[in-house]
User: Which sequence fits this backbone?
């Protein structure tokens, strides 16, 4: 019981610390490139505590990169990322790990530990970071599994899970330590419509129940519109549109229009940059007919 | 002529690039080695982590080590007897079998087997954990993958290796005895007493253990490094496994020459 109370108190303490700055995550003029290839060019975001925020954009536009910058796994080329008032890239390893203990991240493909059972996967962060007795770890793990509806699957190995179940186990593991900030990398990709709705609900419910803040990277417009508080659209490394779901629906922005209506061509070109088509096919004359 | 010059320049460039790459990788590997040592604290105090790895790399290698040791001993018994009896000294069979196993064959062959049985498994495991983002996920959970995944596997290998080499030699001596004494009929007492008289504990046994310890460090280090450094794709992991086996074999044989030349030069 004592340990429970300590856990609770430390949780409260962390929350109070976060309220010092009312933006849990502040990103200013963030630029990043992979070995000279620019991916993000000047991103600004301010995410208040308690919100669920979606970041949308096409594949390869740098969404995962952005999450990894927030989590401190990559260093910005310029600009800064602040989480709970601390500049992430300025932290030493120990401080960074202290910050990450208050973050949970759901990876695109779950990233469950394949040599551990469902139970041990969810127990992993608890065992690594707390000295709780095994009986209490068992209670906490079963509570988390109950929340994602998989209490009965505790003894399965990850290889025996379907995609949706694996995602839910990963979600339970991500929130095992009751994080203040949860990052989701494409939580909806590759799920059937039922699992998709289930995960969407879970993300919202967990966020509100834990009093956490969630950042969700996705390209599923319709599912996210129903459950998030705010949406950013990223294209070509910058934010091209942002707003609440209602504002987004009412938006006349051509980019938002293309994305929401799923049009093949628009501000985001359908074609990857390519040499002139006539030259490529070896045609030297009559190019007018092909263009 | 200019064409020749161009391809020659290309060749030089490639050579330089390869050399720089190799040197860079060697430096990176050494830094990694020290990182593993410095971050071993947590796993050394959590014995269960290392015990698990001793189980996987040590205990599960037992069968191949014991069987190979027995066969190597059988062959040594046959060949040794055949050669020694030409000089009328078949009584020295025990000495010959024991010395060749303790000094050379035990540590070297056991390490080669260990590299292909356990080293490749370690590389595959770490490489796949990397390819499926398990290491990144662990890092995001504020758990250092070098301390939690790499260090226990490294120490598990380092601890297992000398025991495996010792068991290999023991089985080999048993095999030599089986052929020499039981089948061929060398005198039992002479077999053992000649062995006892000529095997020196510090000079032969201890040096053999030292060798297998060095090989254990080398193989384990190569295996964890190749896994950790592998390209995170199916192809990348398979290439890393090949590199583990090849590099380990070369390292074992080269180190064996260096160690032997220090340990046994010109004595007795
Ligand atoms: N490790 C890497 N090295 C070089 N380029 C990378 C690396 N990871 C991603 N990229 C490139 O950066 C861009 C953004 O990648 P990512 O953030 O994974 O996109 P998203 O998650 O939005 O699909 C892509 O064009 C990708 O090719
Ligand atoms: Mg991605």
Assistant:
């Amino acid at each position: 019981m004592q340990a429970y109370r300590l856990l609770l108190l430390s949780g409260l303490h962390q929350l109070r610390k976060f309220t010092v700055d009312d933006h849990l995550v502040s990103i200013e003029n963030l630029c990043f490139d992979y070995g000279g290839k620019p991916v993000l060019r000047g991103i600004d975001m301010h995410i208040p505590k308690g919100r669920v925020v979606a970041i949308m954009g096409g594949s390869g536009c740098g969404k995962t990169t952005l999450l990894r910058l927030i989590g401190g796994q990559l260093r910005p080329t310029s600009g800064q990322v602040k989480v709970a008032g601390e500049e992430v890239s300025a932290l030493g390893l120990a401080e960074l790990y202290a910050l990450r203990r208050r973050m949970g991240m759901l990876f695109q493909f779950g990233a469950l530990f394949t040599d551990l059972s469902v139970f041990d996967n969810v127990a992993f962060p608890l065992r690594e970071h707390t000295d709780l007795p095994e009986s209490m770890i068992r209670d906490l793990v079963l509570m988390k599994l109950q929340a994602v509806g998989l209490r009965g699957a505790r003894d399965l190995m990850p290889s025996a899970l379907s995609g949706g179940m694996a995602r839910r186990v990963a979600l339970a593991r991500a929130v095992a330590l009751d994080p203040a900030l949860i990052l989701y990398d494409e939580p909806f990709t590759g799920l059937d419509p039922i699992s998709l709705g289930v995960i969407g609900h879970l993300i919202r419910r967990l966020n509100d129940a834990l009093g956490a803040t969630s950042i969700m990277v996705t390209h599923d417009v319709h599912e996210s519109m129903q459950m998030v508080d705010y949406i950013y659209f990223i294209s070509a490394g910058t934010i091209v549109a942002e707003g609440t779901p209602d504002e987004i629906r009412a938006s006349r922005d051509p980019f938002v229009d293309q994305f929401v209506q799923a049009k093949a061509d628009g501000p985001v070109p359908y074609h990857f940059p390519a040499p002139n088509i006539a030259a490529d096919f070896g045609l030297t004359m009559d190019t007018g007919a092909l263009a | 002529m200019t064409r020749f010059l161009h391809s020659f320049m290309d060749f030089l460039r490639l050579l330089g690039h390869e050399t720089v790459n190799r040197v860079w990788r060697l430096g990176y590997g050494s830094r990694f080695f020290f990182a593993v040592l410095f971050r071993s604290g947590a796993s050394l105090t959590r014995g269960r982590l290392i015990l698990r790895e001793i189980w996987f790399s040590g205990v599960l290698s037992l069968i191949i080590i014991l069987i190979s040791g027995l066969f190597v001993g059988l062959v040594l018994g046959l060949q040794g007897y055949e050669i020694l009896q030409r000089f009328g000294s078949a009584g020295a069979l025990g000495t010959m079998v024991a010395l060749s196993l303790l000094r050379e064959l035990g540590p070297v062959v056991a390490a080669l087997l260990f590299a292909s049985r356990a080293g490749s498994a370690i590389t595959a495991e770490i490489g796949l954990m990397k390819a499926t983002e398990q290491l990144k996920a662990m890092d995001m959970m504020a758990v250092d993958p070098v301390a939690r995944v790499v260090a226990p596997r490294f120490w598990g290998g380092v601890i297992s290796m000398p025991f495996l080499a010792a068991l290999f030699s023991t089985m080999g001596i048993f095999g030599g005895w089986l052929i020499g004494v039981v089948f061929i009929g060398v005198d039992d007492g002479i077999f053992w007493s000649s062995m006892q008289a000529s095997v020196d504990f510090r000079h032969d046994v201890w040096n053999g253990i030292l060798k297998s310890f060095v090989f254990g460090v080398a193989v384990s280090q190569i295996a964890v490094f190749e896994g950790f450094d592998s390209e995170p794709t199916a192809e990348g992991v398979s290439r890393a496994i090949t590199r583990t086996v090849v590099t380990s074999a070369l390292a074992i044989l080269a180190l064996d020459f260096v160690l032997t030349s220090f340990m046994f030069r010109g004595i007795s």
Observations:
- Residues 15-20 of chain A have pLDDT under 50 and may be disordered.
- The first strand of chain A starts at residue 23 and ends at 34.
- The pocket of magnesium ion (ligand 2) is lined by residues A 63-64, 108, 185-186 (CB under 6 Å).
